[in-house]
Amino acid sequence: MIRFLRGLEYFIKSIKIKINSYMPIILKRSKTLIQNIFANHLNFNILKNI
User: Fold this and answer.
1) Is the dihedral of CA 11, 14, 20, 24 positive or negative?
2) Angle at 9 between CA 19 and CA 2, to 5 degrees
3) C-alpha to C-alpha distance for 2 and 6, rounded to whole angstroms
4) Domain of life of the organism in this record (predicted)?
5) Distance between alpha carbon 25 and the CA centroid of its chain, in Å?
6) Residue 9's pLDDT is what?
7) pLDDT digit string, tens, across residues 1-50
8) What is the pTM of this model?
9) CA–CA distance, 36 with 30 (Å, rounded to integer)
């Protein structure tokens, strides 16, 4: 049981490290994605008003 918990703890730590190393990339991509969606939304509203 203790061995299992140690393994689980190690697994969680490795996931945290991966998340920390990928986080900047994910944030950058989601930022551009949000900007694109926002821009498309604005363009759609402008076209609708014409």
Assistant:
1) negative
2) 170
3) 6
4) Eukaryota
5) 8
6) 93
7) 889 989 999 999 999 988 888 888 888 888 898 888 888 888 777 777 76
8) 0.43
9) 10
Q: What DSSP designation does 9 have?
A: H
Dist CA 19 CA 40 (whole Å) = 30
What amino acid is encoded at 5 in this protein? L
Q: Distance (Å, rounded) from C-alpha 48 to C-alpha 6?
A: 59
């299992």: which residue's tokens? 4
DSSP string, 16-35: HHHHHHHHHHHHHHHHHHHH
Report the distance separating Cα 29 and Cα 33, nearest Å. 6
Provide the token pair at 45: 């509203």
